[in-house]
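Exercise: predict the structure of this protein bound to zinc ion.
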Amino acid sequence: MLALKAKKVFTGLEVIEDGVVIVEDEKVVEVGPSSKVTIPEGCEVIDYKESTIIPGLIDAHTHLTLSAQISNYAAAMKDDKYVLLLRGARNMYCDLLSGVTTMRCLGEIDNIDVALKDASEKGIVPGPRLLISGKGIRSSYGHGIMGAPFDGVDEVRKAARINIHDAGADQIKIFVTGSKGEFKNYKFSVEKAVERNEMHCLLTKEEIQAAVDTAHSVGKRVAAHCYGGVGLRYCVEAGVDTIEHGIYMDDEDIRLMKENNTWLTLTLNAYFNDQRLINRGTPELTRGFVKYRDYIHDAYTKALKAGIRYALGTDGQHGEMAYELEKLVEFGVSPVDALKAATASASELCAVEDKVGTLESDKFADMVVIDGDPTLDISHIRKVKAVYKGGVKLNPNMEW
Ligand SMILES: [Zn+2]
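Solution:
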């Protein structure tokens, strides 16, 4: 058994002063103030003194084969699949070191997520717990480099079934709307689309419904890459569980999502991180993103104000969950609520709240020790002192 002590323990729900976490095997046994928790005899005690212990962070939207933290990452995605596999392994180790112990991967090239989840679970490469999607489902000529083309209700249904039964997908990813520059064939203009509220929907209502019905029939969730417009309405009406990005949501979209309890995954790195835009290496798209930042800021602010349930995702900016949290605080969210979004709320969004996301008895002992107090100053989240996954401390000196 193991007892971790620290000046503060944030459980994912509340802050405990002078806290202690008791761990047995992979699981948390007890959490509370040290005045109330009895440390069992023979238990190894580690006192992290002035530090803060928080649950392992959850990146609710990422891709292992997208490496937005490196320069020219769009070109790098065309690398040989074995190079992508190795880069994916490196990416997930980098995420783990940064305190991310669970990641929801929303579509990968060549089912690389399937191999990396297996390799990680077998202890071959260190990584967070992976929730995988297999092939992202998009239409022919539709948006989504992390997806593959499927057309018509039958193909979508079959793709969802193959993902779930062959690839072992934890959820299904569909790509519903596109973006300028990546969708040249349709002479698409984000500007006009936003002005006229005409965001092209690239899957039919029936195809979206087929994905949802197939996934839900076996208890899996559906995540939709969806910016706004009619596609977002179709998604909400069809029962899509999580809207990804949602950058062009209008008031009516937000009202509908709230009414239907639809989750939103904010991907703040993708739209606000300047380094990512530099790394992208495609000036036209970069200008497009910068141009619409005010609009995105507005949409996200309204969604947060409306009380939409949400979590955060780096969208392939590996090692940068800290940026998601820091940026969220800039949106006026308190550090404690930001931490909740990346832990307790994210576990609910990912449907793994019975296993991770909070430090409570019977959940996995996934923890990050922070050299500072991120509940007061969110930038301290970067000062990672130790990462525990299933009660085992990560060796940060492993050369990988
Ligand atoms: Zn994505």
